[in-house]
Amino acid sequence: MSVSKKSTHATWTDSDDAPELSDEWFENADLHQGEKLVRRGRPKSAAPSVAISLRLPPDVLERWKSTGPGWQTRMVASLKNHAPKGRGH
Fold first, then answer.
1. Nearest to residue 72, comparing CAs of 63, 64, 80, 62?
2. CA–CA separation, 54 vs 9, rounded Å?
3. What does the angle CA 22 – CA 26 – CA 27 come to, to the nearest 5 degrees?
4. Residue 62: is it exposed, middle or buried by C-beta count within 10 angstroms (0-12/13-18/19+)?
5. Alpha-carbon 43 to chain mean position
6. Per the confidence metrics, is the pTM higher than 0.85?
7. 57/16 Cα distance (integer angstroms)
8. Structure confidence by residue, pLDDT tens digits, 64-74
9. Three-state SS for 36?
10. Which residues contact 65 (CB under 8 A, 6 or more apart)?
11. CB atoms inside a 10 Å sphere around CB 55
């Protein structure tokens, strides 16, 4: 016995029934200058940080974290201050 299929025809929508575009929609829209897509947000850094995997003793990590928000930035500053001088520096 064959099973009858449900109707799959598309329903027509009047373009006059489309919702109006809001200010929020335009704020989130892509911006083009000619053919070029203008990227939004923070510009790419000339010297981006590099992600690494580093094993630290738990007590050292907890001491850094206990200093509050921004602990990673402070850790980087400390590493910079205590880094060995490279050749030619």
1. 64
2. 59
3. 110
4. exposed
5. 12
6. no
7. 65
8. 999 999 999 99
9. strand
10. 71
11. 5
pLDDT given for residue 34 in this prediction: 84
DSSP single-letter state for residue 1: -
- With 0-12 / 13-18 / 19 or more C-beta atoms within 10 angstroms meaning exposed / middle / buried, residue 16 is exposed
* Amino acid identity for residue 19 in this structure: P
Sign of the CA dihedral with 61 first, then 64, 69, and 74 last: negative
CA distance 72 to 30: 34
Q: Would you call 37 helix, strand, or coil by DSSP?
A: strand
Q: What's the burial of 70, exposed, middle or buried (CB within 10 Å: 0-12/13-18/19+)? A: exposed
Q: How far apart are CA 65 and CA 61, in angstroms?
A: 6
In the predicted model, what is the mean pLDDT of residues 47-52? 94
60: DSSP letter? H
Contact (Cβ atoms closer than 8 angstroms) between residue 78 and residue 72: no
